Amino acid sequence: MWTIDTILGDITQFPADAIVNAANCSLLGGGGVDGAIHRAAGPELLEECRTLRGCETGQAKLTKGYRLPARYILHTPGPIWRGGTAGEAELLASSYRSCMALAAEHGCKSVAFPSISTGVYRFPLELAAPIAVQTVAQCLEAGSCVERVTFVCFSPAVRKAYEQALNRK
Ligand code: AR6
């Protein structure tokens, strides 16, 4: 059996086997959750990221977690919102799928996600939350060694959107 839940909090402190970073294609850090993860993990994270040569939107790459409680970090650049007709929904789903596949490849049982693309990248939260929940649920239903997925929400509004999406599922 598997579970999906939500929590209000800071993903850098969350003790999952893998946490997800809402990165950009350079994988060399930025603001938002990306900046918080790099600060908390320490400078060795940037050193490893430099060896990865970036990442395409909707794909994911793995690093160690360094000073974080998490063993691994799954870095995925979600789509920048351009009005909804540039394939944003499919690219966002692809980010979640890529992270779930990489987590399973590395034997992770627990994975924590932030709300990818809904900050600096401006993907509307009420559209992003159902895509996140449905995509993760499909991956779990298809069979995976991942047993628990937590959406770590940085504000009550984000948590409410993910709870609503979970309740509709
Ligand atoms: N823990 C959990 N969630 C957080 C945290 C945290 N510590 N900090 C912020 N959030 P964003 P994006 C939430 O902007 O939209 C960066 O510069 C935040 O409130 O971090 O995918 C990258 O380098 C929001 O709900 O990511 C890229 O250039 C969510 O995380 C770009 O931003 C995502 O917001 C990516 O933009």
Strand order of the largest sheet: 1-6-5-2-4-3
Q: Report the biggest beta sheet as strand number plus sense, adding barrel if it closes.
A: 6 strands, mixed
The helix-strand sequence is: EEHHEEHEHEH
Helix content: 25-40%
Distance between the termini: 17 Å
Radius of gyration over C-alpha positions, nearest whole angstrom? 14 Å
Q: What is the total tally of β strands?
A: 6
What oligomeric state is this?
single chain
- Which runs of at least 5 residues are low in confidence (pLDDT < 50)? none
Helix tally equals 5
Could you say which structural class the secondary elements and strand pairing correspond to? alpha/beta
Bound molecules: ligand AR6
Mean pLDDT: 98
How much of the sequence lies in strands comes to 15-25%
Per the principal axes of the C-alpha atoms, what is the gross shape?
Answer: globular
How would you portray this structure in words?
This protein is an alpha/beta fold and 169 residues long. Helices cover 39% and strands 19% of the residues. It has five helices and six strands; from the N terminus they run ββααββαβαβα. It has helices at residues 32-41, 43-50, 88-105, 125-141, 156-168; strands spanning 3-8, 18-23, 61-64, 72-77, 110-113, 148-153. The protein has a six-stranded mixed sheet, sandwiched between helices. Helix 4 links the parallel strand 5 and strand 6. The longest helix is centred in the middle third of the chain and has 18 residues, at 88-105. The two termini are 17 Å apart. The model has no long low-confidence stretch (mean pLDDT 98). Ligand AR6 binds at residues 10-12, 22-24, 30-34, 36, 78, 114-121, 152, 154, 158. Ligand AR6 is lined by residues 10-12, 22-24, 30-34, 36, 78, 114-121, 152, 154, 158.
